[in-house]
Amino acid sequence: MPSWLIGVLIALVLGLAATFYFWMIRRRQDETAAGLLALAALRWRDFSRLVLSSLQLRGLQRLSFKPEDVRNQHPSYLLGDGQGKHVLLSCKHGTAYRIGSVAIEELASEARLRGAHYGILATEGVVDAAGREKAERSSVEVLDGASLWAEVKPMLDSATVQRVVGQANALARRRIGLCWILALLIGVLLSTVLTVNDADPPSASQSASTPAPAPAEQRATTSALPQASQPAAPRARPTDQELAQQRAQVARALATTGGLRQPTWISGSTLAVDVLASEAVVMAAVCAELARHPDLALSRIQLNPAPGSSDRIRWRQCEAPPLAAPPAKS
């Protein structure tokens, strides 16, 4: 698979995953948080009326209409469902509340004293784990966080709802846009790294050693030497199938050689081996085998470190085979 296509696929996966998270999950959380802040900005009487109005959709009607003490900011209301069952509603107004099992027990006790079958606690605050466990055992329904916002959202005026939803949507779009830009950058970077890795890096040993003479220099040297016979015709370049057979022969031969393992041709010009002995021993064995195949003699050799070793991967190359000596004069 081309490296650019891999980068495109990675960018698409990252971008779609970020879009799903920030639009389907995080946007709802942001909307709930903004909605709770909007509710907290109301007066406690308005908040209580919103909750009462939302419970009317369930068929719960307020039974007691006695004047309320304005100093009491945590009123309780006795509701009825029309079938003889009573419900005690308690509203704790404010985002600073951290309600535990004690407050739940107090509400359950008050509900029993007033003849209610169960209680409902509504708050913009948070009910901890102990409080929720106590509420399940004490027949108390908890309305907080997302459940409270979903309950009172239809009762709010359209301007407030549009403002809260618009803020959450705008924040989600900004985050999604930034994530797509980051996903594209990651895709480009990954495709670039894969392209560089696919290319053959220059061999360190080849650059350090003396370069082999150019073909023109070889021809000039050969023509300057006295020759006793006509030079042999140039050897024909082997086909791809023949080169593949030679590589297979080299791999089979090195598989039985000590000091290394897993000889594998990872490309047409690169032979990878796992080093189990010293580098000198391994290079001597590999170069001796490659020397039997002139077309593979200058192949790049990738030396993989032994398992558990902290050494890094190294690349080497065998030295060019020496030119044949000229025949002696008779």
TrEMBL record:
Keywords: Membrane, Transmembrane, Transmembrane helix. Signal peptide: none annotated. Residues 201-211, 223-246 have a biased composition (Low complexity). The lineage of its organism: Bacteria, Pseudomonadati, Pseudomonadota, Gammaproteobacteria, Lysobacterales. Coiled coil: none annotated. Residues 40-148 form the Restriction endonuclease type IV Mrr domain. InterPro entries: Restrct_endonuc_IV_Mrr. It comes from the Bacteria. GO terms for biological process: DNA restriction-modification system. The chain crosses the membrane at residues 6-24, 177-196. This is Restriction endonuclease type IV Mrr domain-containing protein. GO terms for molecular function: DNA binding; endonuclease activity. Residues 200-246 are annotated as: Disordered.
